[in-house]
Structure formats: C-alpha cells, structure tokens
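Record format v2
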Amino acid sequence: MKTGSRITTLVAAALAVAGATVVAQSGRDPLPSWNDTAAKKAILDFVAKVTKEGSPDFVKPEDRIATFDNDGTLWVEQPIYTQVTFAIDEVVAMAPQHPEWREKEPFKSILAHDRGAMLNFSIQDFEKVVAITHSGMTVQQFRDTVKKWLAEAKQPRFKRLYTECIYQPMLELMQCLRDNKFKVYIVTGGGQEFVRAFAGPTYGVPPEQVVGSMGKVKYEYNKEGSPELIKLPEVLLIDDKTGKPEGINMVIGRRPQAAFGNSTGDQQMLEYTGAGDGARLMMLVHHDDAKREYAYGVGSKIGTFSDALMAEAKKKGWIVISMKEDWKTIFPPAKP
Amino acid sequence: MKTGSRITTLVAAALAVAGATVVAQSGRDPLPSWNDTAAKKAILDFVAKVTKEGSPDFVKPEDRIATFDNDGTLWVEQPIYTQVTFAIDEVVAMAPQHPEWREKEPFKSILAHDRGAMLNFSIQDFEKVVAITHSGMTVQQFRDTVKKWLAEAKQPRFKRLYTECIYQPMLELMQCLRDNKFKVYIVTGGGQEFVRAFAGPTYGVPPEQVVGSMGKVKYEYNKEGSPELIKLPEVLLIDDKTGKPEGINMVIGRRPQAAFGNSTGDQQMLEYTGAGDGARLMMLVHHDDAKREYAYGVGSKIGTFSDALMAEAKKKGWIVISMKEDWKTIFPPAKP
C-alpha cells in the first residue's frame, strides 16, 4: 500500500515534530521508576488537572513552569556537596602556583587533606576557597574546568561519576513535565555556572533554565581585543532560602506551578509556589534510604530536613517523597 | 473521500502543533514590511545559513538565541523614554500623599510641569524619581500599575498608545526568527519589570525572556501571612553597555547568534554576539526618518547613535537599518 504508507510517513513526520504531547498521550507509564504510592498519584493527578482544557485548574502550555532544586533533589549531595569537593580538588590542582598556601589557612588544611579541619571550616573559609577557585577566569573557561573535572571525579561511595549519581525517578518526573509542555528549571543554591556546565547533557536543562547562586561578571577585552566575561569574586545572589523566590523572579519572572526540593533551603521556593492560584504541586525528597543511598535529615549539615520543615510540609499539604517507599530504583543503569 | 479527508485532518492537526516551522516553509514573504534592500537580504541569508542542516553555519534549533534592545529598536523612544514619562506621571499621581514634594526637588519641577528643569535633571534626580515610583510595592502590583498606565497613556506625536508605537518590520523580524526556532529575548536598558508588564501581549515575549535593568527584591510575608516579593530601591544590574552582555550571561547563559539595537548602549551586546563562531547577524536601527518617525543619532540624549558607533558598525560588518530606505511601513495598522 504505497500511498497509505506514504501518508503514514507524513503523519509520522508531522507527529515527530509535534513530539512531546503525543508521547504523553501514548498510554505508556511516564514514571516507571516510581512505586504506585500516593506520591506518584499526586504527580499524575496534578499533571492531569493543569493540562485538561476547560478544567478550572487548566494552565496554558506557555505558562507552565516547574522548578527543581539540584543538590539532594536531582543528584546525591552526601557525604559533601559536589561543588565543595570540586573546589577542594581545584585548590590542590592550583597549589603548585601558590607555595604560600602551605602556611596559610584554609588552604593549608586542604593541602594536608585534614578532613577534620575542613569539616569545621567557617563560612569565611569557604568563601575564600570559592573566591580563589571560581573567579579570575572567563565564564567559558570555568565551565570547561568543571566539565573536565566531572568527566573524571567519582562519588566516593558509589564509585560512579557524580553526573551518574542522579535520581532516575526525578529524571522521569522532569521528562513527564516537559512532555506536558512544562518549562523545567533548576533553581539551586549551588553556583549557576557550575550547574550550567553539566545540566544540559545530564538533565536536559539548557543554561537559560538554570537559576543558581550568582557571582558578578565583568565584560573585558583580551589581548587579541576579543570581548570576554570574567568571573569576579563578588556575590550577586545567594540562591538559597528567600534567595530562591528572588532568583526565580530575576530569571523567570513568574511563579511556578510546581516545585521540588529536599531541604530547608527549599522551603521558601515551595511556599512561594504554593501561594499561587489553582492546582499546585510541592514535593520534598526525603533521604530515608541508607541502604540504597543515604538516610539523613534533622541535624545533617548537608541537606538539613528539619522537624520544622516536616511540620510545614504536613500543614501545607506538601508531599514528602520517601526514597525507600516511593522509588523502585535510585540511579539510572550504569553506563557501559 | 471520507478516509482521505480524515487523514488530511490528522496531518493538519499534527502540523498545527508543529506550527511554526511549516509557516516559515510556506513560501510566504516573512518580512512584508521590509523593502527589498540589503538589510532584508542579510536577514534572510542569515536565517537560511543557520537553519540549513549540514551547512558549516548550522545551529541546532535548541541553541538558537536572538536578543533585541527595546527603546528605539522595538518601540519609539522619542521625545523621551516611555519609562521616564511613566515615572513622571506616577510622581504626579502620588503627589497628594506627599505634600512635602511641592517644595522638594526634583519633585517640585515635575509637579510644576517645568520641562526645562526636567531636561536638565541629573542622574541623581532620576534615581530619586525611579526609586520612589519603582519600589515599595510587590512585583505584581508594580506590573499592574504599568499595565494600567500603558492602557491609557499616549505617545504625544502619534496620539497612539505607546504599545502601538512599535515597529511593524521588527515584529515581523521577531516572528521570522521564532518561526525558525529562535528563542527571542529582549535585552533592555529599561527596567526588567517595566518591560515584562507588556512584552507578552505587545511582542509575544514571555517574562522569562526579558532581560533588563534589575532592582533587588525582598521576600516577605504580608498581613495575611502570604509570601510576597517587594521591590527595593537598590540596583542589582544596569543592563546597558557592558551590562548587556553581563545581563545576557546572568539570565540566558549563552551567546546569541543575532542581536539588534539602535544606540551606543547596544554596542557591547552586538560586539559580544559578533565574537562567536559561525554565521552572525548584528543590526542597528538608524532613525533617519523625520517624516514618518524621528531623525536623530549623533548628539541625541535619547538613543545616541554616535559617529564612533557608525564607524564600528562599518568596521565590523554590522548592518545599519535605514528606517527611511529599508522599511515600507513603520507601525502596525491602527487598532479599531
């Protein structure tokens, strides 16, 4: 049936461009790594509501926005934030050019691999480390350095690249939202340029959809007269706690309908999201799976999930995702 | 032919979703308000190059970014920037609550409608006016105030709403780029929230695609306990000159392939755009049409187009658009 198959090809080609919508309507389970618990149901109910034309909760496709925290929400943040490990490794790599660091804190402790001292670093110590490792180069050079590091550095427990220590169920959730015309953003306390360096290939999130802590940049000309953006050691925004809705306004300029986090740093983002009209979805990943990942929360320095946050979640109807109960698998299959 | 028409309907429906691409391939002139001059040819050549798969200049659809200045590039900026007129009108509207302004500059001159004094306002005078009219309210309240003002205020010469004093050829250019999968941004020296208030209905540009001069915002709770973003009088970024590439990096995080401006404030944005690899398109609108719009440039306080900028354009191959020669029409048809 030559004509028939030609028409089929035409339809298929047109549908391939239309893409996303059709996939979502195919009947395939969009969240195969989620157990059939309340969390999964809440996601599917929310998506059904906001995408149903004529429903009071309907949101026009071009207005659909979802925001995801990164550390502890999309990838592993234990035993220490990946970006901190990166900064420490960079200090070690830069040390030959800085002989004075051998006698100067906080660099001295880092070069001596003194984990005890590092765990007790003050905010000021960290600021010094971040300033020296995250400024003085072009934005592109910085991203290249991050990419190169991420291509080799491995998470100590799972012995995988950090970009492979990402949560399969959250990848499916992001894709499900995209299939339903949501613009998916990362809103991270981590550095905006650090996360931009890997968010594309790792999560399918382009640079303009990464909101993060920002440093100033300066427009300058290099020796060849070409313009460059140089990273400066001055902070423009700490995209954490109240900084998250502030950063969302700066870069996105409107309120998301759905927000996903895992710690006290995400409380205001969820609160801001929940304060809008119509159907809303706020979720917190709870790390309660010591066997497959980590169990932490109250009292953890990394990714604090305080009792107050749990109480707030209950009060406001935010859904707490139990990694142990709600997720069939944690990570994507290992790459060959 | 029932089956046939059903298939046609299916194809049509799928194509309707695919939309944009198909329109661009229909053979219809995408730039009907442009004369057949070098400027129009340069646009069409650029679009053909970057969208042709296999061409060395091909840019993947998801990587296509174009940035447009607003004042003087997308809408009229003479005899005075629209946002300044707004601020002055706001001072007048707020005056009953501020009896002290009758004796206090710069408010005194504004309330006395002293145009001579206003033309000689210093930067500090303007800062005072902007601070009082652009902060102390929520982001949403501010946008609502702008919308309300724009729904009534008229441009003094053309006796049309400011949002109707927009350039038809530039609207077509934005749509042509969108039809070819470009993400179209506004990068304006004007206030980000001011431009976000009308960029959607006026230009088809959503809030997240408006980069502008930014003030700080503060996350707070109102009397009902609801979270709000309050505009503060502190400046975060002046999105003009070197601030344009800096703002582009902050919000977009990558280099555009095409950039459009009209004054010295746009030079660095065009320079930054032009410094990338592959095909590039940089254009400057030159206001040389006193009859249909305005003629100004060198020496104009509003929208300065200096001799140095003209020399730079020639040196770098930026295309200077002559409103007089290159544009068939200036504004869209009057609304009934």
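Chain B touches chain A through 41 residues (CB under 8 Å).
Residues 1-24 of chain B have pLDDT under 50 and may be disordered.
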